[in-house]
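Translate sequence into structure tokens.
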Amino acid sequence: MHTSPFSALWTSTLLAALLTSACASKSRRSEEDPAQAAGQATGQAAEQTTDEPPAATGPAAPPADTEPAGAATMQTLAGQLAREAARRPSGQRVEDAFAALAQAGLTLVAPRQYLAVVASADYCAGGVTDTGLSISACEYADGKAAALAVARTERRFPQMVSSRSVLLTGRLSVALSDAGRRPDDATLRRATTALTPKLAARSAR
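Result follows.
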């Protein structure tokens, strides 16, 4: 399945942050209390002064928290996706943008949701057309929030500025990227023409 390059970047960024947080939490839990460690050292020294052989012991019991950090992180990601899907604002939707683009011949193959929080959005989804054009759309509370979020994202990921073109229509942002480059002028005109009248009408409802 194709994945939009900028949606993959946003997802991997949050995944890395959550994984780091999970590992740090496990490290803190595994640190011994200094007083407890001193007591253990004293007990070991006393055992060495006796003539009795050490008692046989079985294998060490596994720690109570054995869940891999990666599994916990994936659960967190799934939970975040579910929350975003459940809290979508009313009005224009990414599906409206995808339908309008499909009428212009820019049809996504199996679009899918991806993390919106990294883009400061309420909900995002995207995919790739059969010609390799990546399309990503995000929903925001209103047009002002959409414009501010796009500007913030491009400051955070400056490499995106030269790799995509972003169209703002109502409270939606629609980003297009062709193999890591901005789409050609003809494709951009098709997308702009397809989105503007249809989504403007939808926004007025």
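Note: The CA atoms of residues 11 and 36 lie 41 Å apart.
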